[in-house]
Amino acid sequence: MFGVATASYQVEGGWNEDGKGENVWDYITHLNPSYIYNNDSGDVACDTYHKWKEDVVLLKDFGVNHYRFSLSWSRILPTGFSNTVNAAGVNYYKNLIKELRNNGIEPVITLHHWDFPQPLQDIGGWTNPDMVNYFADYSRIAFKEFGGDVKFWTTFNEPKQTCEGGYGDGTLAPGIRSPGVADYICVYVVLLAHAKAYHIYDEEFRPTQNGSISIVIDAEWAEPASNSTDDMEAAERRLQFTFGLYANPIFNGNWPQVVIDRIKLRSEKENFSKSRLPEFTVEEIAYIKGTYDYFGFNSYSSSLVENVDEAPFGEPSFNNDQRLTILFLGAKESY
User: Fold this and answer.
1) Which of 159, 209, 161, 201 is nearest to 292 (CA)?
2) What angle is formed at CA 320 by the lines to CA 315 and CA 325, rounded to 5 degrees?
3) Beta 152-157 vs 212-218: how paired, if at all?
């Protein structure tokens, strides 16, 4: 398998053409043009919406046999809800898939790569548990419309970026800053949404389509800054808070124990009535566990990690929950 990958917002363009609805990146870059460096946006991007045939030629010339791309939820369901399906959006992806297969390139489809309908964000986005069902509706339509020609599916690409960047530190759309609270709620909802989409495919579509479906997780690898036990434990905490937070419920069941313990400890000291980390029910643990056919992992860099003393108890903080300092390329950040 040799392939390349893209994300809908980063390459498609055509942000408001042929019935496409507004997504969170459209909204935030139009509201605040300086949100992205140089006032850039994805309004045009690589213009794949119009140049998809040229792109397939380039892919073939490059010699790839797999192409992973994401669907724009807002292009297929302009309001985010399944009661209005945009035929032009569906046909765009059908034509792309057909062209890929005609050129010997296997399509690998991602359902969510940060392109999220703004109308759904207006009612809470990934902090609203109703998103589990809305994502299920969208997934079912995608499986029905495209599944006959698609053998590889990904539910979410890099949910860490969606939750930590979108709902924690606010660096990514929708730009919500609620570290240590909304980011954890987001992870909880996203994992349930992933599991529901997996079960829908497994029960309703796999028997006839015979494809595979999973999730793609990203994390920065962590190594201890020294051979001390404290630093080794800190590096492990870093991995569990960034990697295990998303992978452990799927591959082993439930949150990593160190994540549960750390957030509970700090939540109590901060006078919360219960842990800021949502608690899975026994049924939810069983529902999420095992919802994978393969393991998808994006890795970009590594860091050295040092243990630190407990930070003062005050405002909730994803960083303070980890209790460590990251040494990376000469920079020093306390988490």
Assistant:
1) 201
2) 145
3) parallel
Tokens of 247: 């992978």
The DSSP symbol for 73 reads H
Q: Residue 112: beta bridge partners?
A: 156
Q: Which two tokens stand for residue 183?
A: 């980011």
Q: What does the block give as tokens for 34?
A: 């300086």
Residue 97, SS3? helix
Structure confidence by residue, pLDDT tens digits, 291-329: 999 999 999 889 999 999 999 999 999 999 999 999 874
pTM: 0.96
> Could you give the CA distance from residue 80 to residue 74 in angstroms, rounded to a whole number?
6
Cβ pair 59, 4 in contact under 8 A: yes
The side-by-side arrangement of strands in the sheet containing 212-218 is 3-5, 66-70, 106-112, 152-157, 212-218, 296-298
Could you tell me the domains of the chain? 1-218 (3.20.20.80), 220-290+300-335 (no CATH)
Residue at 5: amino acid letter: A
CA-atom Rg of the chain in angstroms? 20
φ/ψ of residue 177, rounded to 5: -105, 100
Residues in the chain: 335
Per-residue pLDDT of 103-116, as tens digits, reads: 999 999 999 999 99
Pairing of strands 66-70, 106-112: parallel
Q: Residue 28 is encoded by which pair of tokens?
A: 């935030």
Report which DSSP code applies to 252.
T
CA dihedral 87, 92, 95, 101 (to 10 degrees): -120
